[in-house]
Specification:
The complex is a heterodimer of chains A (497) and B (98).
Chain A (H helix, E strand, L loop, with lengths): L8 H10 L4 H19 L2 E4 L1 H16 L11 E5 L26 H8 L3 E6 L33 H8 L5 E5 L6 H7 L2 E4 L20 E5 L2 H11 L17 H7 L6 E5 L9 H16 L3 E5 L7 H16 L20 H12 L2 H14 L5 H24 L2 E5 L15 H5 L6 H6 L2 E9 L6 E8 L4 H19 L11
Parallel strand pairs in A: 2-3, 2-4, 7-8, 7-9
Antiparallel strand pairs in A: 1-3, 4-6, 5-6, 5-10, 9-11, 10-11
Helix pairs in contact in A: 2-3, 7-8, 8-16, 10-12, 10-13
Chain B lengths: L5 H10 L6 H18 L34 H4 L6 E2 L2 E2 L9
Antiparallel strand pairs in B: 1-2
Helix pairs in contact in B: 1-2
The chains are: A alpha/beta (497), B mainly alpha (98).
């Protein structure tokens, strides 16, 4: 039998349901894998060995008692450390929350528990999800399994590295400007940002509330669909949660058919600044989608060129407000409370010590953009750009069912290469940001290895809000065609750890 | 073209409740200038007749029936507190002394 950690989520669930493998065996195999390789990856901040084995044993007991098991029952998962899980340390990659154990479950965790998914632990991330490389984590960088000298993407880099390295078949990430799709692209896996409001944000520690969205990572499109279906749906605990049926993403992944689908290639998301290898693999994938029966054309979204500046005003503005809650009073770090200092002084000392440089920078930019006299020119203008980007999408979706682009302009860059240049770091999210600003659904699916450096390239699929199923149709069709052309799975080409 | 002085940065740090060191203030002044200058491009297309978007989905207030529901116990709610006193959060002084 295949090594247990190499199974897809669907295969693993099937073996558990049929009794060929116990959930405890499967979980133990993944815990062993983490123990063996995480020293060189640093994907996990906390491994919940006891909790995971107990959850797995409960699944085995359920099966023994003859209860119905769901499609992901007993499957292990890695959870980004930005989602609360009752009693389990949650840091957001920040010193300011070191040692904090939340007293409640996020809705995503509640749904995962209800689906009998086994949560292995919490994964590393850029501090408060601000970054594209996990280099902004207070707990060390995560390494890309394809090349340990390179970044695994970010901010959900712990989750992408865990899935790409077989530490877990599934992971949850969050995506504010590309933090699921870009890590998925640079590690050769599938990552999905559902429609904004499609997955509850309750218990997702906020960075930029109008953009943050949790979603799945998996090694194939069908597994991602199963996880998407498990976590999506309306939640009264989140006022921005959409009260509508979840699109049938699982059926769409099985359909895997793009015949007759109108696919628009976004002109603005390609060209100068893109690696040749990325452009080559992308254009091959475009041709392949045409061969598979899609009608492919080019479309212009002129305001996408303004998405990045708008994002770097809107996200920091919301962040400066959201992160005010880390005030050293009710939870988290408190420094300098010597009996002589005021609450305000203790707050300022604690925040200066507890936040890293990128978080401080963004709080300051947001404070600037929101201050009187500058508000209209910066935050106000950025909100107008947001309208223009949404209009570009609306117009494009009148002509096309989905839009596509490379997920990120380059393959995984080297650790340390961009840390001194925030603007260069921000370029990693050039292609992904428009979907956050407009709130539509978006996926990254692998489209091969760059001929330049042998590293994974991702293709981004964008669909209208609440048409997430279209992502899975396109993603599964492309994945199936590439896999059969190659004769094996892309991840089988990753070096052994 | 914005020009962000060290004094501006110190003011922003105070508003942000960040007790930054002198080195951080110096470094941040240069970085903020570069970033703000770069993002200021948004004004090129932000014409007066374009309505702003704060949220991609229309926001409506969500109400629930005003009935008692289970909530955190005092122990759970206080479990992460940096300091406690009499089952309450203990905080540094919040008013200046007379």
């Amino acid at each position: 039998m295949t090594e247990l950690t190499r199974l897809s989520a669907a295969q693993a669930a099937g073996l558990i349901a049929s009794g060929e493998v116990s959930a405890v065996e499967l979980t133990a195999a993944h815990l062993d894998r983490i123990a063996a390789v995480d020293g060189s990856l640093n994907a996990f901040l906390h491994v919940d060995t006891e909790g995971a084995l107990a959850a797995a044993a409960a699944v085995d007991a359920k099966r023994a008692a003859g209860h119905h098991l769901g499609p992901l029952a007993g499957v292990p998962l890695a959870l980004k450390d930005v989602l609360t899980m009752n009693g389990v340390p949650t840091t957001c990659g920040s010193k300011i929350l070191e040692g904090w154990r939340p007293p409640y479950d996020s809705t995503v965790v509640k749904k995962l528990r209800a689906a009998d998914v086994v949560i292995l632990g919490k994964t590393n991330m850029d501090e408060f999800a601000m970054g594209s490389s996990t280099e902004n984590s207070a707990y060390g960088v995560t390494h890309n399994p394809w090349d340990l000298d390179r970044i695994p993407g970010g901010s959900s880099g712990g989750s992408s590295a865990a899935v790409a390295s077989y530490e877990a078949p599934l992971a949850i990430g969050t995506d504010t400007g590309g933090s699921i799709r870009q890590p998925a692209a640079v590690t050769g896996i599938v990552g999905v940002k559902p429609t904004y409001g499609g997955v509850s944000r309750y218990g997702l520690i906020a960075f930029s509330s109008s953009l943050d969205q949790a979603g799945p990572f998996a090694r194939n499109v069908y597994d991602a669909a199963l996880l998407h279906a498990a976590i999506a749906g309306h939640d009264p605990m989140d006022s921005t949660s959409i009260d509508a049926p979840v699109p049938d993403v699982v059926a769409a992944a099985l359909q895997a058919d793009v015949r007759g689908l109108r696919i628009g290639v976004v002109r603005e998301l390609n060209g100068d600044g893109y690696d040749n290898g990325v452009r080559q693999r992308f254009s091959e994938a475009v041709a392949l989608l045409g061969e598979l029966g899609a009608s492919v054309g080019e479309v212009s979204c002129p305001h996408f060129d303004y998405a990045m500046p708008a994002y770097y005003l809107i996200a920091p503005s919301e962040c400066s407000s959201n992160l005010a809650r880390f005030d050293a009073m009710r939870y988290g770090l408190r420094i300098g409370d010597d009996g002589t200092r005021s609450a305000e002084e203790v707050m300022a000392i604690t925040r200066a010590a507890g936040f890293g440089p990128e978080v401080k920078r963004r709080i300051m930019i947001g404070t600037y953009a929101l201050s009187s006299g500058y508000y209209d020119a910066y935050y106000g203008s950025a909100q107008k750009v947001r309208t223009l980007i949404s209009r570009d999408f609306t117009a494009a979706f009148e002509q096309f069912d989905v839009l596509i682009s490379p997920t990120t302009p380059t393959t995984a860059f080297r650790i340390g290469e961009r840390t001194d240049d925030p603007l260069k770091m921000y370029l990693a999210d050039l292609d992904t940001i428009p979907s956050n600003l407009a709130g539509n659904a978006s996926m990254s699916v692998p489209c091969g290895l760059s001929p330049d450096d042998g590293l994974p390239v991702g293709l981004q699929v964008m669909a209208p809000a609440m048409a997430d199923d279209r992502l899975y149709r396109v993603g599964a069709a492309l994945e199936g065609a590439l896999d059969s052309r190659r004769g094996h799975l892309l991840l089988e080409e990753a070096p052994a750890l | 073209m914005p020009s962000i002085t060290r004094a501006d940065v110190a003011h922003l740090a105070r508003l942000s409740r960040l007790a930054l060191s002198d080195d951080e203030l110096d470094q941040m002044a240069g970085q903020l200038e570069v970033i703000i200058t770069s993002v200021a491009r948004v004004s090129e297309v932000a014409d007066a007749d374009v309505p702003p978007t704060s949220h991609s989905v229309p926001l409506t207030n969500v109400f629930r029936p005003d009935v008692l529901q289970p909530c955190l116990t005092p122990e759970a709610a206080l479990s992460g507190a940096p300091a406690l006193e009499d089952q309450r959060f203990r905080v540094p002084r919040i008013l200046d002394e007379e």
